[in-house]
Amino acid sequence: MAVITLTTDFGALYPASLKAAILNICADATIVDISHTIPQGDILSGAFALYNTAHLFKKETVHVAVVDPGVGTCRKALILEAGGQYFVGPNNGLMIPAAHRCGKMRVWEILVDKLFPEISSTFHGRDVFAPIGAYLATGKKPEDLGKQSDCYVCLWIEEVRIEDETIRGKVNYIDDFGNIVTSIPARPLSNIIEVGDILEIEGNALRFVDTYANANPEETIALIGSHGFLEIAVSMGNAAERLSISGHPEICFQRITSTYNGE
What we know:
By secondary structure, the protein is α+β, with helices and mostly antiparallel strands.
């Protein structure tokens, strides 16, 4: 049975149109919603959501991803194949981190004008990407739908700079709990910080812990989340609201001390 995932910034109404387009072509598809609540036009948040999820699916899964502020412009439409999975969406970097995580990547530019001579200029999710995803799920090959290409927009999920006791990155994603997921991967931190250390960000002290349950009520903490990146959280609270962080700003941690008095 074909599995097709959807990742969009479409909210409540418009995903149904994508599902209709898919089911009209591939009636037995299992459709999995990764997210439809990506902030509008927020390509990096969409890329992180897909990166955090796509590799968990089986081979031959098709991922349709549409966070597309450039819809109707000259931006290209792509099919990617990596690790036996397919990705369909706009050429704006949205799918690249997830595809790289799955394996070596191949790219095709969808022949939109040839395949879809009459489409909306504002809804390529329904008129292009969902049908292409469905065709792939029914067994069509990328070369039947596009021409191979080596031209695509890159986007990076991992970003970290370390100087002495200072760790810099950016905000990748803010989840529904208000947890702030940074671009700083766990790997380079192992020789710098350990559980119990105190970090400072914009005058706020954060204790580095190994799990949410080891935080005091309403304590602001730092930890490595299940996604493998440094994260800021508030126990039973909202870190993004407490620190007044939104979007994708640069973020800077300073290692202060390993002494913690529980206050």
